Amino acid sequence: MKLGCEQTYEWVVKLLQECDFGESAKRLGLEQSGGGKILVNFLDRKYAVTKSGIELCAEKTVWAFKKKGHEYDVKSVIGYYVLSDARAEPLNDFCPLSSFSHGIFDEGRSGWMNDALTKVYGSDYNKFRESAGRLGMLFEGEKSAGQYVWAYSLLPKIPVKIVYYEGDDEFPSKLQILYDKSAIQFYKFEPLAALHGCFTAGLAAIGDAAA
Hints:
The chain is of the alpha+beta class. 40% of the residues lie in helices and 27% in strands. A 5-stranded antiparallel β-sheet has the order 5-9-8-7-6. It is globular and about 55 Å long. The protein starts with a helix and ends with a helix. The relative contact order is 0.17.
């Protein structure tokens, strides 16, 4: 029996068959290649999107998801991005994922998605800094003592902020991911949450691969 993530991916591929790739690529800031392909970068991986499927085609930084389902999830969220009809531009105004859920999905419940990041980077800011630099993240400064802010373009129209909170004797270190408020115009909440899950799992895997 197929997993739910496999069925979702197959549904996305069916929708792609009706997509105007040229218009989507131009509007969403995506690269087009010969043979009717759109190329999408995700965490130093390059995926080729065609009418028949989405496949990993290149890796600048070699890493792997720990869970098989995440491979289907990332292909689906890339497909949903290509399918988006949004014409928005980033607002440079950021908020946590939970802000898009209208109270249904609070920050406490979303914290488990960041647990993998905390396990890999929570006690080692230098390790996180190395991974951030490898991915081309931009360090924006220390907002306050022990609070380091990094900027990253997760997808062309979806910038994020990664805030590393350095722990002390009273509070443990933690990482928080903030999304530009325009992100909800490109994704409905469920696929945006899936994108968040893929981002956190992938960023953690990159840290593991460098260990």
